[in-house]
Structures are given as C-alpha cells and as structure tokens.
Design goal:
heterodimer; A: about 260 residues; alpha/beta; Rossmann fold; 9-stranded mixed beta sheet; 11 strands; B: about 375 residues; alpha+beta; Butyryl-Coa Dehydrogenase, subunit A, domain 1; Butyryl-CoA Dehydrogenase, subunit A, domain 2; Butyryl-CoA Dehydrogenase, subunit A, domain 3; 4-stranded mixed beta sheet; 4-stranded antiparallel beta sheet; 10 strands; about 50% helix
C-alpha cells in the first residue's frame, strides 16, 4: 500500500506579525515549518504504515526552500519525498495547487490513500484537499479524527462541529485530518541522519508532471487576492454607572438613538 | 579557509532536540530537582529519541553522528536541564565510549545495541574515595582466578553516574592489575554487568547539583566477572581513561555552554519583563552591559568548543583545545549563571526560578572530569611550561 501525504511549508504564524501598511506578512526571520495539521496527516500515515505496512510518500509544492519541510517529513519516517517546484507554479490559488498536485499523484499512479491536513495556518481555506480529490475523482472524507483500513476500504471518524460521522469509502480515497487525530512524533536522531544523508528528494517541474500551462500558477488561478488587511476594531464599548432605574433609562436612550426600538 | 556554518542536518538536529527538551524535560526539571529524583520515564524517552550511542556506528545500533552534532545535542538538553544532560553526556562519553572505542567485536555486539537504544545505561567507574585527580591512588584491584577463568574485583568507586537506577546495566571499572617495570601501578578496565556477583551500588543523596541525575558509590566484594570482560589489553587502563576523558571533556564543555545559554536567555527575558522605576530593567546600562558580556562570553565559548569538536571530527589532536573548552565553558557558565541570578534579584534566590538551579548545577562543571586546576595543569603542559 502506498500512502501519499500532502504537506505545505508555512511560516510559523505563532511568530508572525502583519505589516499594517501593506497587509502582508512580515516573513523576515520567521521560521518556516510544516503546516501543523499536515504533520498530523503524516503521523496518521506513519501509524498506518506501522500497522499494515506501507510506503509513505510526502508530496509538496513550493519553492526550493520547501526541501527543509520534506527533510523533516523524511526524518519523521516518510520513505520518499517529492517536491513540485517550478517558477510556473508561482501564484497558484487552491484550485491551481490542487490541479498541480493531482498531476503529480497521477504520475505516482499507485496509491491507496492521500492524507493531508484539514487546512494550512497561513490561508485557512481547507480547500486544497477536497479539490485534489475532485481532480482525481476519488472519494474524500474530511475533518478526520480517526482512521481504520480494512481490505480495500477506509473507515474514518469525521467530526464537524457537533456532528460526528463514521464514513466508509473504497480506496483510493483522500482524507483531511485535524489536530485532534494524533500527536505527531518527534524526529529521532537516527531519523534525522538518515533523512539528510541517505534519503533523496525528487524534484518535479511542470513538464515532469505533464501539467497544462494554463491551469497552473497565476494563469490557472480563478481567485486572485486583491488586498489583504487586518480588520480595524474602531467601535468602543461604553460603561454606564448608576442606580438600576437610571441605568435602564440610559440603555433605552441608546437603543432609541440608534433606531433599534 | 574558515567556514563557521553548520550543516542543514546539524541545524535541524538542534531544532528537534530543543523542541524535545522544552516539551519533555523543562516542565519537569524543577520538580525532579526538588525531589532529587532520577526519571526513568524521561530517560526512556531520551533513549527512544536516539540520545544514546550518538557517535556510535549504526552497525551497532548507534546514531552515527559526527562529534559537533553530538555536542549540539548535549548543549540543547543542558540549555533546559543539567541533570538530564548529565545522564546523556555520561551515558555516551563515559559509559558507551570505552566499549565502543576499546571493546572487542564480541563485547561491542553484546552491549552496544541495548545501550544505544537506551534500554540500559552504563557508567564509568574511575574516581575513588581517595583517588580523584590522582588516578595513581586507585586501590580497587582485579586478580585473575585462572582456575575459574574469572577476574575477581575488590574495592570501591565514588561519584559514579548512571549506575544505581533500574536501567543501570553495566559499569566500566578501572582497577589495578599489577605493577609496571618502573614500579607504577598497572591499570586495566573491565566490563562489569550490574548483576555480577559481589557488585553493589548505593545511591548518593543530598547533592547540591544535578539532583535529578543518578550518582552512586560502587562496592566490589570479590566481584566475579568472566576473564573475557577485560576491555582491550591488560595494562591499557590508564591510556583508555585518558582518551575517554578527552572526549568526555567536550561533552562537559557542551553542558557549560548549554547551561550558560539557558541561564542567559532566562536573564534576558526576565530583564525585559521586570520593570523598576517605570521601565524594563534591561534598559539600564548596568543590566544591559551584564547581558552584553554574557552574550560575548557564550559566543567565544561556543567557538572554542566547536573548534575542539572540529579537530576531533577531522582526526586531529584536540587534547589541548578540549581541555581549554571544558575549562572555559564551565567558567563561562559560572559567570553567566551568577549574573543571571543577580539580574533576577530576590526572585533569583527562589527555587521557582530556573536560574537558581542553573547556578547550583554549574558547580559540578568546575570539578567533574578533571577539575579546573587539573585542566590548567594539562593546558600549561601543552603550551610548554
């Protein structure tokens, strides 16, 4: 069984500030990390590997620096790593990203599961996973907190708000997992040494995965960011003090003044 | 050409060990120190991480690290807690080192895989009640019983790390095995399993420092081990000890460096948060300059220690630089921890603040694995005095 884990390298938003002028992230000096829920996805894949035997392939799209995230995944125990890197991929929205990833998955061909994090902490869209399954026309189970594999089916506990569902799908299938799923393991010292010295990272560009130029990067992205900004909180609360009767009058006054009553 | 950059692998190793130390060790350090408790649980976790057998070849279950990587690993543990760093540094440099460097193939195959997994711990029995800096004072002796083909060891050892907890599996013991032609004591090292008949270890209590590390006295009362448990050849014990301590000094150096870094960071953070006269105290030059001095000394200590490791990695002589690094890193931590307490004011005297522990833990580094005085003696000989 081959399990593909999709990961994204993101700035560690715990350490990030937003430039109030431009509305963009101040990335300087901010460490790049594996998106936390993608780590949960990798942990899920590694647990399945330990139980059933599997080859775990991590797949990421990003600039050459994303290699560090893939090395970390290899150090945690992934068997292979593929980086999709090409200037032509730049500016991709979730749809173009999902399409690009799907081209790579088609090239990998042999897989039973694709597991990714529910969403990335830099964009919070939670779209790329579901869109990837649509591109590949395979079943998807999202917001997964527990997973079992039996024969050629996958059984997953999906939790969304107050709704808990047990969903079964025939493999190949795609899962997106949440942080409640597991506690990602540490890379071991030996794992780190192996990841950096013995394991290889394969780099594929748009031609390698046979991606159509008009469907990738900025040209392939139906959504484009016009502006990012931090919402301003300008409204202020007002505190009234006094006897209850007086307070009731004051409150009524505010409601009348604002045409609520 | 001088290249000060660490490899991506070394940087990621630091990041990983730091995360582990902050999450799995730091939250328990104060309590374990207060209760003087060796944590089997944390030791097992460190074993699973691969903290033991750092420089041992993967062929024997080791991690196959270069020496700088090993030293970074110890440094990052010491940055949060000296006791756990001691368990790891002693386990590697003193416990595993002699078996790996001087053991025969059979001994390596027998002991290293379990030691490297952290399933068992090993210690190095060198110091005695009356033989500290002067190894010539060693009284523990070993006699070969040829009829039974066994060594019979008698004597005792003092201040031995990692040998009286439930994971303790084996001790390397230095003992007198005869006299040389010049009339000097001939020393040899032996592999003594902790379940050998006649072996006993007693935990030492009421330590000032490293209270969560395991320190003991060892007793050998007609302790019998198979003849094949001698390490290397008879009479090589002194040379083996010197080589082991050369490597060990680098790990003690990294404990000084890591401890200094940890105490510095605590002091810096406190000085930014603590306000007196309406501003953070780090805005006062009296405090700011202390912090600047700490930063300078830590940087210098790191460069010296890493250079000594680089020499060792490249198979070059490193005895002098190793001694210098051990001494300097220990003393830098002494000055840094002292000032870190000073910057914390009254709070620095309280056990609720980590700098109090760093201040106590530092003192061992001036004494263990060759006192500062012995280091100065070694260095002065190297430079031709």
């Amino acid at each position: 069984m081959n399990i593909i884990v999709t990961i994204k390298q993101v700035p560690d938003t715990n350490n990030i500030t937003i430039d109030p002028e431009t509305g963009t992230l101040n990335r300087e000096g901010v460490p790049a990390i594996i998106n936390p829920e993608d780590k949960n996805a990798l942990e899920a894949a590694l647990t399945l590997k330990e139980k059933h035997g599997a080859k775990v392939i991590v797949l990421s799209m990003g600039p050459p620096q994303a290699e560090k995230a893939l090395r970390e995944a290899l150090a945690m125990g992934a068997d292979e790593a593929i980086l999709l890197s090409d200037r032509a991929f730049a500016g991709a929205d979730t749809w173009a990203t999902a399409y690009t990833l799907s081209c790579a998955v088609k090239k990998i061909k042999d897989y039973s599961l694709i597991i990714g994090g529910r969403q990335a902490i830099d964009g919070d869209t939670a779209q790329t996973g579901p869109q990837l399954s649509e591109c590949l026309k395979i079943p998807q189970i999202t917001y997964v907190q527990d997973v079992k594999v039996e024969g050629d089916t996958v059984l997953a506990k999906s939790v969304f708000g107050n709704v808990r569902r047990m969903v079964q799908a025939k493999m190949p299938a795609l899962l997106t997992v949440t942080k409640e799923m597991n506690e990602p393991r540490y890379s071991t010292i030996r794992g780190i040494a192996t990841a950096y010295r013995e394991k290889k990272i394969t780099v594929w560009n748009s031609k390698d995965v046979d991606a159509k130029p008009m469907r990738i990067g900025l040209p392939g992205s139906p959504t484009q960011v016009r502006k990012t900004f931090s919402p301003k909180h300008e409204r202020e609360g007002k505190v009234f003090a006094g006897a209850p009767g007086q307070l009731a009058n004051d409150l009524l006054g505010v409601l009348v003044d604002n045409n609520y009553v | 050409m001088i290249d000060y950059s660490l490899t991506d692998e070394q940087n990621f190793l630091r990041e990983t060990v730091r995360k582990f130390a902050e999450n799995e060790i730091a939250p328990y350090a104060q309590e374990l120190d207060r209760e003087e408790k060796f944590s089997v649980e944390i030791t097992k976790k460190m074993g699973e991480m691969g903290f033991f057998g750092a420089f041992v070849s993967p062929k024997y279950g080791g991690q196959g690290l270069d020496y700088i990587s090993y030293i970074i690993m110890v440094e990052e543990i010491a940055r949060v807690d000296g006791s756990q760093a001691a368990t790891v540094a002693a386990g590697n440099s003193l416990g595993i080192g002699p078996i790996y460097y001087f053991g025969n193939e059979e001994q390596k195959q027998k002991w290293l895989p379990r030691l490297c997994k952290g399933e068992i711990l090993s210690g190095f029995g060198l110091t005695e009640a009356d033989a500290g800096s002067d190894a010539g004072g060693t009284l523990t002796n070993a006699v070969l019983d040829e009829r039974k083909n066994e060594w019979v060891i008698n004597g005792s050892k003092m201040f031995i790390t990692n040998t009286s907890n439930e994971l303790s599996g084996v001790v390397i013991v230095q003992a007198v095995t005869g006299k040389s032609a010049k009339g000097r004591k001939e020393l040899s090292c032996f592999i003594v399993p902790t379940d050998a008949p006649g072996f006993e270890s007693r935990k030492l209590h009421d330590k000032m420092m490293w209270r969560a590390s395991d320190t003991s006295e060892l007793y050998f009362d007609d302790c019998r081990i198979p003849a094949g448990n001698i390490l290397g050849n008879k009479g090589e014990g002194f040379k083996q000890m010197l080589q082991t301590l050369d490597g060990g000094r680098l790990s003690i150096g990294s404990m000084g460096l890591g401890g200094a870094q940890g105490a510095f960071e605590k002091a810096l953070q406190y000085s930014q948060e603590r306000k007196q006269f309406g501003k953070p105290i780090c805005k006062n030059q009296a405090i700011a300059f202390k912090l600047a001095d700490m930063a300078i000394e830590i940087e210098a200590a790191r460069n010296l220690l890493y250079k000594a490791c680089w020499l060792k990695n490249n198979g070059l002589p490193y005895g002098k630089e190793g001694s210098m690094a051990k001494l300097y890193c220990a003393e830098v931590m002494g000055r840094v921890a002292n000032q870190a307490v000073q910057i914390h004011g009254g709070y620095g005297l309280m056990k609720d603040y980590d700098v109090e522990r760093f201040f106590r833990d530092q003192k061992l580094l001036d004494i263990g694995e060759g006192t500062s005085e012995i280091q100065r003696l070694v260095i002065s000989r190297y430079i031709g005095c």
